Amino acid sequence: MPQATSLSVPHLLGIKDLTREDIELIFDTAATFKEVINRPIKKVPSLRDLTVANLFFEDSTRTRISFELAEKRLSADVVNFSASSSSVKKGETLLDTVNNILSMKVDMIVMRHPAPGAPHFLSNRIKANIINAGDGTHEHPTQALLDAYSMREHFGDLEGKKVAIFGDILHSRVALSNIFCLKKLGAAVKVCGPPTLLPKYIASLGVEVEHDVEKTLQWCDVANILRIQLERQDIRYFPSLREYALYFGINKAMLDRLPKPILIMHPGPINRGVEITSDVADSEHSIILQQVENGVAVRMAVLYLLAGAR
Amino acid sequence: MDHERIILSRERFALTIERMCHQLIEQFDRFDDTCIIGIQPRGTFFSDRLHARLLQLLDVPRIPYGKLDITFYRDDFRLHNKPLVPSANQMDFLVENKNVVLVDDVLYSGRTVQAALAALNDYGRPRVVELAVLVDRRFNRHLPIQADFTGITVDALDHAYVKVEWAHTDGEDRILLFADKKDRDK
After folding, report:
1. Distance of CA A208 to the CA centre of its chain
2. Which residues of A, range 285-304, sit inside 8 Å of B by Cβ?
3. What are the domain boundaries of chain B?
4. Given B72, B73, B83, which is nearest A5 (Cβ)?
5. pLDDT, tens digit, for every residue of B53-82?
6. Of A107-116, A233-242, A296-305, where does mean pLDDT reach its minimum?
7. pLDDT tens across A37-48, in order?
8. Cα dihedral A103/A105/A108/A111 (nearest 10)
9. Are both A15-139+292-308 and A141-287 of the same fold?
10. Are A65 and A51 in contact (CB under 8 A)?
């Protein structure tokens, strides 16, 4: 079968727009970049003629460093921008900000924005390739890709694998992108959390809904445990963190009761002792740090594939 | 007129590889401090053969052997409509102070070799790099790069195409010359 050699999209706005072939092409390319970043000299000259702007209108540590490393390891020129220290504070619109940056000859934009759909809005109005690094509660495609890549690295293939996503599904762009990605790769997905943190129509995405953590753990091969987004809890979705930890936190005793070991994942940052205890996060079945390592390789693959088709 | 002709038959193909192995031994003796690096993807078919035969001829347990993927180092990366697909890179040693035999199947414009030399830089500073190619299309160079070991020299026009076929992928070891690039897939 002739394999796809380029993505079907000019931007990475969300997993929803990708085909299964796109995702597999990204994974195959990421595998070669993973080899590159484990070399003594971790840098290749592929994107040396490109300039990438990282526009972060919302805070980030991991994603931003990961993108910046990915860009630098491909030899792109990188400019960073964060909303907190920019003219956005003076009332400049998103389109004006981006157009000003583009007129300084920037070729690609990596953007995180609190408004869902912000990168889609830009993609209709500017020429640069856009990579969505998280738009509000909508999508976080590179996180889903690196999660699925990490699972695939472990299992070989995700067809028929059972993945449970725990926690705050309502506010989570990671959950939504993960659901799209895993379904496209043939995995079965179950979401588990308190009813207040599960969107009402989530089942229409083809996922099962469960509120019992132990039952879900029994079912799954992989537990992807999401962060309780303390910054988005202005309405009380649950009575207290202690109560959440008691009913929805995952601890070592629960895992010890399971018939088989399951893979533990977390996109970070971890609230230790809330959604996951330290002994689970640091256990031998946890691949949390491998996820971070794979993040750089997957982002290099996305940048490379989008740049190569420019 | 035929669209293609065989320029190296199976028998002469085997003799050519045998001869090149002996030339390499003449130059590098027992391959102390010498490594073989094949360029991915198709250069490694040739380097696999050279490496295996050299091990037999020299009766040594090991010759350092790597497969170098040069996709990310190519100067034409952004000139294609589609991204170039990388191959696996298998380099588990550094070339610092070593003699390197760089191996490819066809030397044409010289750009692949240029990219390979750039890629090789990331693995240290070799003492010397020599180039072994199965086919040298000597009148089609874009860069001042020449082979040190050559299987067969082909003088062909730019629109001709040289195809190296291998027993394990195409059924037989042989080299074909197509008068026109467009005929190669027929």
Report:
1. 21
2. 304
3. 9-77+85-156
4. B83
5. 999 999 999 999 999 999 989 887 766 777
6. A233-242
7. 998 889 899 998
8. -40
9. yes
10. no
Can you give the pLDDT at residue A115? 94
Compute the distance between CA of residue B123 and CA of residue A44 in angstroms, rounded to an integer: 12
Architecture of the domain made up of B9-77+85-156: 3-Layer(aba) Sandwich (3.40)
**A146 and A294 Cβ atoms separated by less than 8 Å:** yes
With CA atoms as reference, the chain A residue closest to B74 would be A46
- Higher pLDDT: A70 or A84? It is A70
Quick one: fold of A15-139+292-308?
Answer: Rossmann fold (3.40.50)
Tokens of A49: 């003629």
- Rounded CA-CA distance A194/A170 in Å is 10
Say if A29 is an interface residue toward chain B (CB within 8 Å).
yes
Q: Which superfamily does A141-287 belong to?
A: Aspartate/ornithine carbamoyltransferase (3.40.50.1370)
| Phi, psi (degrees; rounded to nearest 5) at B25 | -65, -40
- State which amino acid sits at residue A136: G
- Per-residue pLDDT tens for B3-28? 789 999 999 999 999 999 999 999 99
- Is ipTM > 0.85 here? no
Question: Is A2's pLDDT higher than 50?
Answer: no
The answer to whether residue A235 scores a pLDDT higher than 80 is no
Cβ of B72 under 8 Å from any chain A Cβ?
yes
Name which of B4, B15, B23, B12 is nearest B103 in CA terms.
B23
Task: Tell me which residue has tokens 């031994």.
Answer: B25
Q: Which tokens belong to A134?
A: 């998280």
Structural domain spans, chain A? 15-139+292-308, 141-287
- Cβ pair A304:B123 closer than 8 A: no
Q: What is the distance between the alpha carbons of residues A291 and A44, in angstroms, rounded to a whole number?
A: 22
Outline where B31-123 has alpha helix (H): 43-58, 111-121
